[in-house]
Design a protein that fits this description.
The chain is mostly helical. The chain is built from five helices and four strands, in the order ααααββββα.
Length: 193
């Protein structure tokens, strides 16, 4: 993605005679594929591959910052909104990945897993087949007339069981009586008032 931003900034720059900065995109892609194609890479190879990709990204971010110095303060940047949004995410992603590399962990707070959707968070569910899920957690109340009311929608990984009691009380406050039944995951079971 950083290479696309560099290409776009170079194409729209005023000084087109200036050489486009090197990005090593082919080398980076080959290095990435050589690591991903391994069935079970050793910890040493995995860390070396991560370090190499972080260095490529750091280099590209420096080039982007240098290219952005051509724009005086207050002038619009010649990137379309999609690339501009992704550029705002890239430094945060780099910082998170660098911290995880430096501390040799695989976890961090509010981990970014998608550049195009930085609000998505991995939710570890422990289900068979797919241990990690992505997406929003939603809590819905359904009335007897078939109307649905969204009580809570959040993207963070948290336990939904803490919301159950508050949602039942919100249903009572909204309609004046407790629900006939509550349907939830097997973790929470079926709750009858």
């Amino acid at each position: 993605m950083s290479e696309c931003i560099i290409d776009e900034l170079h194409a729209n720059s005023n000084r087109t005679q200036k050489k486009k900065p090197r990005t090593y995109r082919e080398i980076a892609r080959k290095a990435y594929l050589s690591l991903v194609k391994l069935r079970r890479p050793s910890n040493r190879k995995r860390r070396a591959g991560i370090r190499q990709q972080l260095q490529f990204l750091q280099r590209n971010l420096k080039h982007i910052e240098e290219m952005l110095t051509e724009y005086p303060l207050g002038t619009p940047i010649s990137l379309h909104n999609g690339l501009l949004r992704r550029y705002w995410v890239l430094p945060h992603l780099y910082q998170q990945q660098y911290e995880m590399y430096k501390t040799n962990t695989r976890r961090c707070d509010d981990r970014i897993v998608s550049i195009s959707q930085p609000y998505l968070r991995p939710i570890i569910r422990g289900k068979q087949g797919k241990t990690v899920e992505f997406g929003a957690k939603i809590s819905v109340s359904l009335t007897g007339e078939g109307l649905a009311h969204v009580d809570k929608l959040h993207w963070d990984a948290q336990h939904e069981g803490h919301d159950l009691e508050a949602q039942v009380e919100a249903y009572k406050k909204r309609y004046g009586y407790y629900p006939e039944g509550v349907i939830a995951d097997t973790l929470y079971g079926l709750w009858l008032p």
